[in-house]
Amino acid sequence: MSDHSKKLGVVALVAMVISSSIGSGIFGISSDMAGSASPGAAIIAWLIVGLGVLMLCLSLTNLIAKRPELSGVFSYAEAGFGPFGGFISGWGYWLSAWLGNVAFATMMMSAVGYFIPVFSGGQNLLSIIVASIILWFMCFLVNKGIESAAVINIIVTVCKIVPLLIFTIIAIISFKADIFTANFWGTLSGNFEVKSVFSQIQNSMMVLMWVFVGIEGAAMMADRAETKAVAAKSTVLGLIGLLIIYILISLLPYGLMDRQTIVQFGQPSMGYILKELVGPWGAAMINIGLIISIFGCWLSWTMLPAETTLLMAKQNLLPKKFGEVNCANSPTFSLVFMTILTQLFVFTLLFTEKAYNFAYSLCTAAIFVTWIMVTMYQVKFSYQRHENVQLLIGVLGCIFFAWAIYASGLEYFLLCFTVYILGMYFYAKARKENGCERVFSKKDLIVAGLIILGAIFSIYLLVTGQIAM
Asked: Which residues fall in a coiled-coil region (predicted)?
C-alpha cells in the first residue's frame, strides 16, 4: 500500500473534526442558551462565533502548512514569543483539558441521576464519590497504556450522532413558528434594541465557545491529510458542519416551548425536552447515549493533558519528571499529578450552585489562552512574510478572542491564573534543570507579575462572592 493511499481524505477529516469537537456541551446547550439569549440574539451570536472560530482554524492550517517542523499547538507560541510563551500556551491547553473532565463528571452524574434519583443533579456527595472512582479508573486505564481504539471511537461517535439526529428530526416535526417568534428579540418592546441584544450575545458567549473546545485538534491532523489543501478544506467544511448541528440543536427548542420552561429543565436539557415531546423513552435514549459518549470523551481527555505535559517536558518547558514514562509508555507522574488536581476541583462541586456551568466556564477560559496565542503568532508570522490576507485573518482572530475573553467573563479567565502560579514553579525548575542561567527575561517577569496579580484579584472576587459558582 502506498503512503498516499494511507493518507486521510476530505470525508475522513471532516468526520474527525465533527467527532472531536462534539462532547457533552451540545446535550445541555438548549437550557444554557435559553437562559442567556432570545432566538434573534442567538442567531447573531452564532454568526459572530462562527466567523471568529473560522479565523482560528484558518490560522492553524496556514501555520501547519508553513511551519510543519513545529509539534504541538503550544509550539506556535514558543516560536513566536519564546520558551515562556510556549509554557503559557501549553499550560493553558493542559489546564483546559483536565478541567473539561470536571464538567464531564457533573454531566455524567446528572445523566445517571435520570435513572437513579439519588444521583439527581450530579453534585451531591454520592455523585462526587462515584465520579471520583471513575476519575481514578480512567487514570489507571491510561497508565496501563490503554489507547482510544478505533472500536471505542466508533461506539462513542454513534452515541453522539444518533441521539442528536433523532432529537433534530423530532424537533423539526414539532416546531411551531409562532412560539419561535413570540419574543424573538427578548426585549421589553419586542423590537430590536442594540443594547439589549448585544448584552444577550455577550451573556451567551461562554456557552457557545465551550462547544468548540477541541476544534484545534482537527487542524493538527493536517500532516495525515492527502495534501495541506485537503486539510484546510476539511477544517472549514467540518466547522460549517458543526455550526449547522449546533445552530439546529440550540435554536429548535425556542420553537417548541417558551424560554422560561426550557431554562427550568435539568441537565442534560435535551433529554428533558425530548421527554416532553415523545415521552420517557426519549429522555432515556438521550441520557444513555450521553453517558457512553462522556465515558469515551473522558478517556480521551485523560490522555490529552498527560500527552501535553509529556511534550512540554521534551521541549524543556516542564521538569524532566513530567516526561518520564513507564513500561507501557505512559507518563505516570503526569497522569497522577493531573488526576489529583482534577480530584480537588471535583470536590468543589459540593459548594457550587451550577457545577457544570462553573466547570465548563473554567475549561473554556483556559483554552482561550492557547487560541489567542495561535492567532497572535499568525499575525507576527504573516507580517514578517508580508502576507496581507493571512495577516488580516490573524488580526481578526486576535480581536475576536480578546473580545470573547471579556464577554465570556474575565473573572473566569483570571481564576485560571491561580493554577499558573504552580505551573511557573515547574517552568522555573525545568529551566534550571537545563542549565539556563536566566530563567525569566525582563518581559517574562512582567507577564509573570501580571499573572500573579490577576490570580490574587480573582481569589478576592471568589471570596467576596463576585464570581458565580
From this structure: none
